[in-house]
Every structure is written in structure tokens, then in C-alpha cells.
Amino acid sequence: MTAQLAVSNLTMTFGGLVALNAIDLEVRTGELIGLIGPNGSGKTTLLNIVGGYYSATAGKVAFEGRRIDGKTPTALARMGIGRSFQVTKVFKRLTVLENLLVPGVTDWSVSTAKASERAQGILADLNLKRLADERASTLSGGQAKLLEFGRIMMLSPKLVLLDEPFGGVHPELKSFMYDHIKDWNAGGVTVILISHDMGSIFDLCHRVVTLSYGSIIADGSPNEVRKDPAVLEAYLGDHHVA
Ligand code: ADP
Ligand code: MG
Predict the structure, then answer these.
(1) 5-90+139-241 CATH pick, 3.20.20.120, 3.40.50.300, 3.30.450.40, 3.90.226.10
(2) What residues contact 120, with CB distance under 8 A and at least 6 apart?
(3) Is 50 exceeded by the pLDDT of residue 105?
């Protein structure tokens, strides 16, 4: 089977720091992958490159057989790649509802009324409906995470990139997100999930990729990765316990 997402020889340096060191990663359509690793291991950088926010120092990224490195996040969203951020990037001066309509109206050929109806439904699911007309700057950290999740729901994505999506989210809504991630996956959507919450990684993911100092040190089933000495050492070295 050919890969939906193929990252090859991907390298990213910031000054003298090698954040990603010649990464190769192939992801098939419909996989639900956990991306783990100690702080600073390059997880966010990898999603930033795949999502079009950084351009890599070297290497390439292909999606459905087409090179996508160098494309803008908006162009990638139109191709069906949605992402959420570790540090949320909602449009603070727009209302909560308007935040969902930005990608909805610009990326779709549907009417504003239809997009608005869809957005209202998503806000209801995320328990944000009563805040629809408030500025997004009034949201808590967890609510902003939910709003970013809602933006991906608006897209009908093919590939979802989630960077610490559960931080500060109310447990009930975290469970909604879980179910939605599972639904996406059941419908053939590919998901790459970064989370410090190992419980969610091991509950949700079929495959776990571990980064350490910009290199992939393990790639396998949750059970394989959990027992992998290199993974344990990477975390213990960082004063974390896997
Ligand atoms: P993770 O998400 O795994 O915690 P990151 O991808 O955020 O790691 O960071 C990997 C490394 O790259 C870290 O050493 C970090 O300080 C560095 N880094 C990330 N983004 C930038 C940037 N925009 N400028 C300089 N250094 C960066
Ligand atoms: Mg990060």
C-alpha cells in the first residue's frame, strides 16, 4: 500500500540546533498514530513542517503522492490537512462562531448559511454554543483547544494533526474529542496525535512513533513501544517516567 503521507530525509535546524535529523516516516491512510518523545525532541517541529508552518532545511514531504513542502497552511487545509496547536492560535478578535467560519467560508463552495448551520452544530457539540458571539479572547485555554478542534471538524479532513489537544479540556469534552477522533479514524481519516498524556496515546493509537533529539528511536505498536528500552531511556534521561 502506498503511503498517504511520506516524509523523507526531513531535517530542520534552528541556528546550530538540529531539531529534526533526517527523519523518514510513512503514514498510510486511516492510521491513528501517536507521536511521543521528551520535551524538545522535535514533535511540534515535525507537525509544523507537515502543516506548512515551517519550511524544512532539507528533505521532502509528500501527501497523496504530491509534494506539499512549501505549500501554505491554507492550501494544505484545502487539501484536507487540519491541525491544532500546542499553543492555540485562535483569532482572538473574532467571535467564537466567526473562528469556525474563517476556514468554512473561504475553503468551501457551500453557502454561508450552510456553513453557519454546521458551525452552530459543532459549537453545541463542544459546549461552546452559549459563547458563540463572544470574542475568542474570552475563552479559557481548554475552550480555545476545543475551538481549534472545531475548526478541524469544519474541514471534513483527510489528515488531522493534533498537538497536545487535551490540555485544560474538561473531562467530559475530552471524552467527546476521544470519540470524535475514533469516528474520524473509523471513517478512514488519518490522525497523528501528540500528547503527554500516555493514557490517551495508548488508548487511541494503533502505532506509536517516538522521537528523541530529532530522530525516530522507536516505531511500533503501543505494546512494543511501551517496553522499548530506548524509549524508556529517552524519558528517564529527561526525568520523565514513561
Ligand atoms: P517538542 O514539541 O517535542 O517539545 P519542538 O519541536 O517544539 O519539540 O522543539 C524541538 C527543538 O527545536 C527544541 O530544542 C526547540 O527549542 C527548538 N525549536 C523549536 N521551534 C523553534 C524555533 N521557532 N526557533 C528556534 N528553536 C526552535
Ligand atoms: Mg511540542
Answers:
(1) 3.40.50.300
(2) 97, 129, 132
(3) no
* 42 Cα–ligand 1 center, Å: 6
pTM, to two decimals: 0.92
Nearest-atom index, ligand 1, CA of 37:
3
Name which of 41-45, 100-104, 156-160, 172-176 the model is least confident about: 100-104
Pocket (CB within 6 angstroms of ligand 1) = 14, 17, 19, 37, 39-45
Contact in structure between 160 and 83 (CB atoms under 8 Å): yes
Give one word for 213, left, alpha or beta, with left for phi > 0 and alpha for psi -120 to 50. Answer: left
Per-domain boundaries in the chain: 5-90+139-241, 91-138
**147 CB-near residues (< 8 Å, 6+ apart):** 88, 90, 96, 99, 100, 126, 128, 136, 139
